């Protein structure tokens, strides 16, 4: 089954199906591609999520549209992988690193 990635000048967004995911955010010896900002957005229904590798990790935390949302979290500087466990499908959005001379937008 294919995946869809939504890419803008400032972020990449993709679907995380219900289950456990390990997302590579920093590769040893490589220039960083990603920034620190992360969001995890539920789709059609509430989801219970747990995370590892973020500034504000959560465990068994319910997220829902119109309720609590994780839209402004940060990847910890030492984190190589962000781990997300979700009971329902969610969107995962990750900032792209700004290149010197680029405007934020």
Automatic annotation (TrEMBL):
InterPro entries registered for this protein in UniProt: Thiamin_PyroPKinase_B1-bd, TPK_B1-bd_sf
Thiamin pyrophosphokinase thiamin-binding domain span: 19-90
Entry GO MF terms: thiamine binding; thiamine diphosphokinase activity
Organism domain of life: Eukaryota
GO biological process, one term: thiamine diphosphate biosynthetic process
Protein name: Thiamin pyrophosphokinase thiamin-binding domain-containing protein
């Amino acid at each position: 089954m294919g995946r869809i990635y939504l890419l803008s000048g400032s972020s990449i967004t993709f679907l995380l199906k219900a289950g456990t995911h390990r997302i590579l955010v920093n590769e040893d010896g490589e220039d960083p591609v990603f920034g620190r900002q992360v969001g995890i957005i539920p789709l059609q229904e509430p989801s219970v999520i747990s995370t590892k590798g973020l500034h504000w990790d959560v465990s068994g935390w319910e997220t829902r549209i119109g309720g609590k949302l994780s839209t402004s979290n940060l990847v910890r500087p030492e984190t190589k992988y962000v781990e997300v466990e979700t009971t329902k499908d969610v969107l995962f959005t990750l900032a792209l690193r700004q290149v010197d001379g680029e405007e934020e937008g």
